[in-house]
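REVIEWER CHECKLIST
Item 1: Sequence provided? yes
Item 2: Single chain? yes
Item 3: Sequence as submitted:
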Amino acid sequence: MALNRYKMRHLASKGHHGATRTEKLMARTDRLLGVILLGNNLANAAAATLVTVIAIRLIGENEIALTLATLFVTAAILIFSEITPKLIGASYPEKIAYPASFLLRPLLKVAHPIVSLANIFVTGILWTLGLNPINHKKDNLSPEELRTLVLENGNFLPQKHKNILTNLFDLNTITVEDVMTPRSRIEAIDLNSNTDILRKEISSSNHTRIPLFSDQLDNVVGIVHLRKLLNVAEGELIDKNLLEEIMWEPYFVPIDTPLLTQLQNFQDQGSTMGLIVDEYGELMGLLTLEDIIEEIIGEFTTDSPLSANYFKPQEDGSIIANGGCPLRDLNKHLGFKFPLGGPKTINGLIVNHFQDIPDPGTSLKIGEIPIEISYLCSKNNKGNWKIFDVILKGSISEISTKKSDFSSIIDNEGADGLIKSLDSKIIFD
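Item 4: Structure as written out by the authors:
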């Protein structure tokens, strides 16, 4: 174990004299190594000479005396000069380094001419070889190295604090696509709806900030805050004109924006909500400042009911999951190891695997996770029917790409017609 430079710098900043001296000595490692090696070689040479002289006087000047002297000096230097002191220094770096600075500092001044002369020759040789022996840059840790340091040496940190730190390291590798609310789960209001529908949508909303669109969701025209709406309305009729007066322009965010960058953008723009769009301008999802904060410190318990139904454990050990559930959430909460380099949801992962929309009853295995696909029909909080595909054995899934087909069947034939069309393979809840 080497001396912890970061701990040393911390102690030096707190006024620790030994740490301060050691930090100054280590600022020029060429000089420090020079004086240490000078003393080490002088001691070894003196020991070898002394032992040789003693062996010659006791045994005589012959090959046996020289051989014995060589073996004895080698063993003595190896044990007492190399292994033992270095093992002690590696085991107790701070206890050795800080007191040693008392001795090394004056020795460095005394031996400065010799050390400087030797360093000139060494520097010349290394320069000839195209090497720079002195690195004037401070020791900086990369994000990955700092992450490893926190995970392996952060025993003094509470687990919650450690999780927050590691989540911060991930912000620059995670994009807004990974944490956004997908398009299918965005609560938005059509401005062209009649007054009764507008009031019903507003009164039943689970959020305080609602996107407003015209005719189709891709045509978002503004964002309205319900608190401001209530303050302005004060008994007035809530209609399209009132909403247009108080709404503000939407803020669009490219889908590949790193999460850390977007956090900074929110701060610069003074905004707390952004609409995620792809390269063609198509609306892909919605991101709020709360989503980023949850990614850092963990999920809150104030989520809407719509966001709380991603997956549900069953008594038989299987999982029923919404196909729109992000793979990152499944990996984080359930310990799965789904690949994150491609599709972001279990729905997309399954469709990408088959390169087609699988039929109910289809089974597959991704990694070590078995998946069986069927369909679940249920009502949402607004009384509308929604179709999910689920996994009954082992894990999770949903193929929401068939939602439009199923919705048309429900509209024309009702839930019974949908059940019939799926040939009794549907689970009706």
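Item 5: Key structural point noted by reviewer: The CA atoms of residues 222 and 250 lie 5 Å apart.
Item 6: Recommendation: ____
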